[in-house]
Each structure stands twice: as C-alpha cells, then as structure tokens.
Amino acid sequence: xxxxxxxxxxxxxxxxxxxxxxxxxxxxxxxxxxxxxxxxxxxxxxxxxxxxxxxxxxxxxxxxxxxxxxxxxxxxxxxxxxxxxxxxxxxxxxxxxxxxxxxxxxxxxxxxxxxxxxxxxxxxxxxxxxxxxxxxxxxxxxxxxxxxxxxxxxxxxxxxxxxxxxxxxxxxxxxxxxxxxxxxxxxxxxxxxxxxxxxxxxxxxxxxxxxxxxxxxxxxxxxxxxxxxxxxxxxxxxxxxxxxxxxxxxxxxxxxxxxxxxxxxxxxxxxxxxxxxxxxxxxxxxxxxxxxxxxxxxxxxxxxxxxxxxxxxxxxxxxxxxxxxxxxxxxxxxxxxxxxxxxxxxxxxxxxxxxxxxxxxxxxxxxxxxxxxxxxxxxxxxxxxxxxxxxxxxxxxxxxxxxxxxxxxxxxxxxxxxxxxxxxxxxxxxxxxxxxxxxxxxx
Length: 443
Ligand code: SF4
Prior knowledge:
By secondary structure, the protein is α/β, with parallel strands linked by helices. It contains 18 helices and 18 strands. Helix 5 (123-136) runs parallel beside helix 6 (156-164), helix 9 runs parallel beside helix 11 and helix 14 packs antiparallel against helix 18.
C-alpha cells in the first residue's frame, strides 16, 4: 500500500524518478470550516493582541489585461471603471481592521501586491493602495514591499508612483524574452521593449528588480531557454525565479494543444534538462541560491515575502480571491467581485471558507522549508517535535537514496540535482506519508 511513496527504480532519476511532476506548493489536509464559523474565528483573533512572529500581508489585484494561455490565476478582465471601484473596496477592507489589537500588536515585515496584474492599475490607484497600507499597517523599518506585474503598460508614471508609495521590490513576469514564444502564449511586449524597460527600472536604483522565467513553454527550445537565462544575467537584475511550466488540467493551454492550435510544450525529461541547464548557468555566474527556483545577484534581493510564506508565519489576506493564514487557521476570501463588494458593504471580512490547520502543520512547513533550501535536518526536527523522524521516514529515505534523489550525510538529508528537480514531489510525499502513518497508528 505504500508503493506510491517510492520513486521509480531507474538509473536516471533526473528524467524519470516519477511519472508526474507536482508543480504547485505542497499541501497538508486540514479541517474545513464553514464561512460563518470562519468569520467568527477571524473576529476573535483580531480582537486580541497576538501573533508576534514575522508577519506579511497579501493584497490581491484580480485583473489582467490579457489572459495568458498557461495561466491558472486569471480572474477578471481589466476594465478601468471596475478596477477603480475595486480599489475603493480594497481600501475599505483595509480600513475595517485598522484599529484591531491584533493588527497593531506587531510590525509587518513583508507586503505583497500580487495578482492578477497589479501593474495594470493606474498610477493613482497603485499609489492610493500603498499610501493606505503605510497609514494603517505598522510596517517594520526594513519592511519589504513588493509590486508584482508585467512590463506591458507599466509606464514611467506607474513606476514612479510605486516607488513614491514605498515599493522597494518590483517583480516582473517575463516568462521568456523570445518574442515568438511570448506571443504564442498571449504575452504582448517584444523582447527589445522588455529589455529597455527592465534596464530603465533597474537604472533608477530604487528597488530590487526581480523577474520570473518559465521553462517548458511551447516553441521554447533548450537553446531559447539558455538564452533567456543568459539574458537575465546580462541585465544585471537583482533576482530571478526559474519556474517550470505547469499545465492546468482542463486549462486553456491543454485545450489549445489538444486542438492542435499550439505546439506541445516540452515533456518532463526535457524540462528536467532545462532545469539542470538553468542551475548550471546560475552556479557558474555565482548567484546566491535562495531556494530551488530562486536566485539573487546580491543581498538587495531579500525575498522576504516568499520565504515567510514557506515558513510557519502569519499572512493577512486582503482582496477578492486572496488567501492568508494565522493563529492555526487558513482563510480564503470571496473571489466573485459582486459578492466581495456586498460583504464589504455589510462591514464583513470577505472570508468564504476557513481551514483548521493540521496539528503537525509546523512540521510540514519545516520539511518544505528544508527541502526548498536543499538540506533537511531531521535530527533537529525530531527534537523540536519530540518524534523519531529518521525512523518514521527511513523506508522512503532508504529508497530515495538508492535511486539517487537524496544523500544522507551526518544526519542531514541533502538533495541531489535530481532531488532538486523533483523536490515538490518529495515534499508532498513526506507530508502524505506522515499523515498516513499517523492515521494508521491512531486506528
Ligand atoms: S498577466 Fe499574469 S495573472 Fe494575468 S493571465 Fe497573464 S500570467 Fe496570469
């Protein structure tokens, strides 16, 4: 019955360790809580001081100017009048919690404006949101404030409004510099325009400039991928994420491939080669590896929000479609705009579902954090959680080591290159295995 937790017996684990690759964050099962109960829990948390660990807040901007073919996060088409209305409501949502003891109790260390496309908003709306955040939330002096977006329609006025509003980290989804590859998946700007704008933002020297690149896109050969990564290095930007293409089931990309409207994206073994090539180039360029997919050129890229998300930290959600977690619960917010507006009008936090976290949520986050960094210290975690984790995971580790996904050295579990490529699978399998074993012991 435990066979599904083992890798395939192969001499080539980088390409063939598992049949399917998991591309989204590892998750543990929690206990769902209905909306009205979740609302009460939220209110109860907000009324008390607490949550003294590192804190982040996430603001969701659920609009995009185009619908990229591969995207699983698209919510609404951008329309100026709708976006303006939405920003008014987002600000009201923030004002609703302004005087809560929980919010005032401790500084925030990371603010993230994500989406969707926050850079689709006009300069005045970007500034309005940032100003309200700074007026209401107690921000730490060195708080990281990230604006996510794209180069298309991110003109000077918006860039200056962001910086004036306090943004110190700009994260741009480039995906590929190759104009043909970009246009085939619904990206608009051409290579030269992107390079020119990135150079301009970087030359202002006011914020860390980060880009996302995706490997495995249709028409993106390994040579194009190599030139994408090299182009990033040539630009001298502060950080980069090298992501694997995720084909969502029933999504537009899957449909387009099925209907032969677009070339089939790279298969998993080819993606593994692309991953290995990206790792090699970044290593040679001596960039600092912050996670399995993220590199920094210098200490200017601190990557605080993303590292807090992977830890057992606090994240307060704002906006339609946002999610957050605190005090042992996950909270999911309404993603239908009309319902979101109605809830704010009724002076309610727009939560539509909650989830009580698994009792070992902290352990799962530590496993994720360890594997994400490339080294997992099971001795330390065993002491922290009073469990013999080396013994619990020994069947998996023995097999994974034989196959070549991990190395056990001085009580530490280190990932090989193949393990790095499959690390989300390994992480999810460890979480599932632990849950399975604990269930069995309780029976
Ligand atoms: S702009 Fe970003 S969020 Fe919007 S559809 Fe494209 S990839 Fe998705």
